[in-house]
From TrEMBL:
SUPFAM superfamilies: Putative isomerase YbhE (SSF101908). One of its GO terms (molecular function) is actin binding. Pfam families: DUF1899, WD40, WD40_4. Residues 142-152, 163-193 have a biased composition (Low complexity). One of its GO terms (cellular component) is cytoplasm. Residues 127-199, 586-615 are annotated as: Disordered. One of its GO terms (biological process) is actin cytoskeleton organization. It is found in: Cytoplasm. Residues 200-265 form the DUF1899 domain. This is Coronin. F-actin regulator involved in anterograde Golgi to endosome transport: upon ubiquitination via 'Lys-33'-linked ubiquitin chains by the BCR(KLHL20) E3 ubiquitin ligase complex, interacts with EPS15 and localizes to the trans-Golgi network, where it promotes actin polymerization, thereby facilitating post-Golgi trafficking. May play a role in the maintenance of the Golgi apparatus morphology. WD repeats lie at residues 324-366, 367-399. Belongs to the WD repeat coronin family.
Length: 680
């Protein structure tokens, strides 16, 4: 969408769904278009309009103003020229077209081509706040008003026009905060884009200054070879627990490598010991209550259960501990129950979700009702319900022990490229990451009690091909979102009420990652205010990434950041008890070290020492004072060296010593001459 200002010859180009504005300067000679600047928008653009020049803040050197329409706001974007003097600059603001029509319809139909007369933008020459038109006669005066002299319509002052109140035309006190800038090559300065009013006045997250950092290379696992980086979109690509990580390989036979996190470093060039599944791997998951138990789903519609030795995988394993059969098509994803031991849910291309009792090795429950591909599923934190997001554009909530049919249904994302779902806000809400009809990635927040009413909030992010994979921390209500092949990790704090999403600092890496997984909370270093630790899978390495908060008093335990966390590695129920209808709650654990005091109980700091007045440093000094200070500094640096020099303490040599030490023989060198042989 082109927007041209003929007076300044600035051309703004914008596209729907994009997050940038491009500004060019148009010239009648070559080059006709000169790039000026690019403006990065905070949200996707839905529409754009150019503000008339009569509404510009000319005393602030505002040469152009654009209005951006986003999903939730109209954001002004202002372009300013840096000038020292606060005055009207005629070179920047030539006369512009007024708002009084040049002719009436009859004259135009008769062939008149009169142009709208131009008006000055100088504040002293601005018209009065009234509107006079050639077509609409002014209203008659009231009896109390004096009768003014009538002015013929044809003799109306061309400078008269519509004038807004000064408060509408006055630029904010900080115009640089309103919009982008133009490059210095064309004489127009730079300024950041304006934040929406909600982000300025609404609540903010205490995690907004979070800092993501890749740990030292000593903790990396490098020299990874032959990784399968094309796993299905429903899979995270790899899985990890507190002790080890499992990742599928490209080699035939559905091989899975298992690496020990306690053994970082460079892997040998030799072939690694693997788990041989016999079919291509579609998804894999560690048992949350047994760090040695791994479930692997394959394209042959089977689920293989493996047990890794406590010391790690040292040889190739070909026989799994158990094989679960029942699905008729290849499997999408696997999800272990968060509270009950030996309970596993799986989704498949046969459009069913099956719940297995691993101890018995049998299918116990089967959920139906899906009409298309199942993009994702998630257990609620209490383990009573299961939520799914489907390609048919619907969300579903099941109570597996109550009915095989969904308990609730609601509209999901419009796009059909992929989606993920996770329970958030203590189980009161559902967060869905997906795509809209324009393939823009977005987040949708639903109330778990009213799916049919639609999302509570929708947040558009960016345009990218990969589905955002959410990793949710229930202790802080933070969600980390990134996709396979992305270089950025989004970080948001979720609220069950407006504004729902509180943006925090994102983490950016120089190269794309193939996977990103959140580790348990007990792996965080609370002394460094580390509230999240993740594993980032690259093409040839695995590296830990930490997220920390900058805090001044780190000697105290930050109990506002680290509440008691659930003991997720201990089961609350057995599979038999859960299938029988029992429920439970996990045990809570404090993360406070025994030698640290909570910051909420820390003594208050004394008043800060007042800094000396700046006048002490900015006071003007005379040339004589500067000269004396310079000489004093030089003398103080050199010092008065009155001590004797080392050579002054040396004793001389007597004359007789010179005679006694004379050489006893001399060597005399004669010039070379050509002598006959007989004289030698």
């Amino acid at each position: 969408m082109p927007l041209l200002d003929p007076d300044s010859r600035l051309l703004v180009l914008a596209g729907k769904g994009e997050s940038q504005l491009y500004c060019y300067e148009v010239a009648p000679q070559q080059p006709a278009l000169s790039p000026v600047t690019q403006c990065l928008l905070e949200s996707a653009l839905r529409g754009v309009a150019l503000v008339p020049r009569r509404a510009l803040a000319v005393m602030g050197c505002e040469v152009l103003r654009v209005l951006q329409l986003s999903d939730t706001a109209i954001v002004p974007i202002s372009y300013h020229v840096p000038r020292k003097a606060v005055e009207f600059h005629e070179d920047l603001f030539p006369d512009t077209a007024g708002c009084v029509p040049a002719s009436d319809p009859h004259a135009w139909w008769a062939g008149s081509n009169q142009q709208v007369q131009r008006v000055s933008l100088h504040p002293a020459c601005r018209p009065h706040p009234s509107f006079t038109s050639r077509l609409v006669p002014p209203a008659g005066p009231t009896p109390e008003e004096a009768q003014p002299a009538e002015t013929p319509v044809g003799d109306a002052d061309p400078s008269e026009g519509f004038s807004s109140p000064p408060s509408l035309l006055t630029s904010p006190s900080t115009p640089s905060s309103l919009g982008p800038s133009l490059s210095s090559t064309s004489g127009i300065g730079t300024s950041p884009s304006q934040r929406s009013l909600q982000s300025l006045l609404g609540p903010s997250s205490k995690f907004r200054h979070a800092q993501g950092t890749v740990l030292h290379r000593d903790s990396h696992i490098t020299n990874l070879k032959g990784l399968n980086l094309t796993t299905p979109g429903e899979s995270d690509g790899f899985c990890a627990n507190r002790q080890r990580v499992a990742m599928p390989l490209l080699s035939s036979g559905g091989q899975v490598a298992v690496l020990e996190l306690r053994k970082p470093g460079r892997l040998p060039d030799t072939v690694l010991p693997t788990l041989q599944n016999g079919a291509a791997v579609t998804d894999l998951a560690w048992d949350p209550f047994d760090p040695h138990h791994l479930a692997v789903a394959g394209e042959d519609a089977r689920i293989r259960l493996w047990r890794v030795p406590p010391e790690g995988l040292e040889e190739v394993l070909t026989m799994p501990e158990a094989v679960l059969t029942g699905h008729t098509e290849k499997i999408y994803s696997l999800r272990f129950h968060p509270l009950a031991a030996d309970v596993l849910a799986s989704s498949s291309y046969d459009l069913t979700i099956r719940i297995w009792d691993l101890k018995a090795g049998a299918e116990r429950l089967r959920l139906q009702g899906h009409r298309d591909q199942i993009f994702g599923l998630a257990w609620s934190s209490d383990g009573r319900q299961l939520a799914t997001v489907c390609k048919d554009g619907h969300l579903r909530i099941y109570e597996p022990r109550g009915s095989p049919e969904p308990l609730q249904e609601g509209p999901g994302p419009e796009g059909a490229r992929g989606a993920r779902i996770v329970w958030v806000c203590d189980g009161h809400c559902l967060l869905v990451s997906g795509f809209d009809s324009r393939s823009e990635r977005q987040l949708l927040l639903y109330s778990a009690e009213a799916l049919a009413s639609g999302p509570l909030a929708v947040l558009g992010l960016d345009v990218a091909p990969s589905t955002l994979l959410p990793s949710y921390d229930p202790d802080t209500r933070l969600v980390l979102l990134t996709g396979k092949g992305d270089t950025r990790v989004f970080l948001y704090e979720l609220l069950p009420e407006a504004p729902f999403f509180l943006e925090c600092n994102s983490f950016t890496s120089p190269d794309p990652h193939k996977g990103f997984i959140l580790l348990p909370k007990t792996e965080c270093d609370v002394r460094e205010v580390e509230f999240a630790r993740c594993l980032r899978l690259r093409q040839t390495s695995l590296e830990p990434v930490t997220f920390r908060l900058p805090r001044v008093r780190k000697e105290f335990f930050q109990d506002d950041v680290f509440p008691d966390t659930a003991v997720s590695w201990e089961p609350v129920l057995s599979a038999e008890a859960w299938l029988g209808g029992a429920n439970g709650q996990p045990r809570l654990l404090s993360l406070q070290p025994p030698d640290m005091t909570p910051v909420s109980q820390a003594p208050r700091e004394g008043p800060a020492r007042r800094a000396p007045s700046s006048a002490l440093y900015l006071e003007e000094k005379s040339d004589q004072q500067k000269k004396e200070e310079l000489l004093s500094a030089m003398v103080a640096k050199l010092g008065n060296r009155v001590d004797p020099l080392p050579q002054d303490s040396f004793e001389g040599v007597d004359e007789d010593e010179w005679a006694l030490s004379a050489p006893s023989h001399f060597l005399v060198y004669l010039p070379r001459t050509s002598l006959p042989t007989s004289h030698l």
